[in-house]
Amino acid sequence: MSRYLLALIALIGTVQSGCAQYEPAVNEASSELFGGKKVLVAYFSWGGTTERFAEEIATQTGATLFRIEPVNPYPSEYTPCTEVAKEELESNARPEIKGNVEDWDRYDIVFIGCPVWWHTAPMIISTFTENYDFSGKTVVPFCTYAATYRDETLRKIVELTPLANHLEGLGTTGSTSPIGEWLQRISAQYYAQTAGIADVQSDADSDRLTYYTLDGIAQHSKPQRPGLYIVSDGYSSKKVIL
User: Fold this and answer.
1) With CB atoms counted within 10 Å of each terminal CB, which end of the chain scores lower, N or C?
2) How far is Cα 242 from Cα 188, in angstroms, rounded to an integer?
3) What angle do CA 196, 139, 30 make, to 5 degrees?
């Protein structure tokens, strides 16, 4: 490896580029995700699936959890609950929320999650997003769904937070999901945003390229784990997001 590349790696420092699956174990490098920035996971959950999703995100990132809980609880039975949800959607309601996020200004990254209700995010998510100033924050949407309308719901959360920056969201049906891999990927995206690095894909088919993790580990084929790498062709190098 050239002296130049070694010096570049030493200056940048280290970053974890491993993957984890949707499991209770804590990722040993979770505190390094998002460069140690303060993370909040705000979620609304009715049946418990979104809550489990939110708790796993918090476990892997070391985030603070905030449950978005209505002052007037939704019916515990499915059909009555859907009727209330539909009425709120049609009337553009803003259900009142219990409590507030303490020290809102300290959080740099805010995950916002919910189930899909009537093809979109529940109206209580609108209440939450209108209660806080998202200027300068980065929002990550996530949702749980039974069949479809994942993309519409993730997009709705983005639309509700126009003053924020946004990272790639994730939806799940509640089965095993690549949460760890997703978190590693968007952590690298966040690093690229804040460091002003372009999100570029290197030529993965070239045999001349060597991929270095930021702690100097080399691979001669495109890494399978997402993250930030230094790519060298033997003459020059550049930082890339994979």
Assistant:
1) N
2) 8
3) 80
Are β-strands 237-241 and 228-232 bridged in parallel, bridged antiparallel, or unpaired? antiparallel
DSSP codes joined into one string, the chain? --HHHHHHHHHH---------SSSSPPTTGGGGGGG--EEEEE--SSSHHHHHHHHHHHHHTPEEEE--BSSPPPSSHHHHHHHHHHHHHTT----BSS--TTGGG-SEEEEEEE-BTTB--HHHHHHHHTS--TT-EEEEEEE-SSS-HHHHHHHHHHT-TTSEE---EEE-SS---HHHHHHHHHHHHHHHHHT-------TT-TT-EEE-TTS-EESS--SS-SEEEEE-SS-EEEEE-
> Which tokens go with 141?
């949407």
Instruction: Give the pLDDT band of residue 15 (cuts 50, 70, 90).
Output: very low
**Mean pLDDT to the nearest integer, 33-46:** 93
CA 213/CA 132 separation, integer angstroms: 38
Contact 101, 42 (CB under 8 A): yes
Residue 79 CB neighbour total at 10 angstroms: 7
Which has more confidence, 16 or 191? Answer: 191
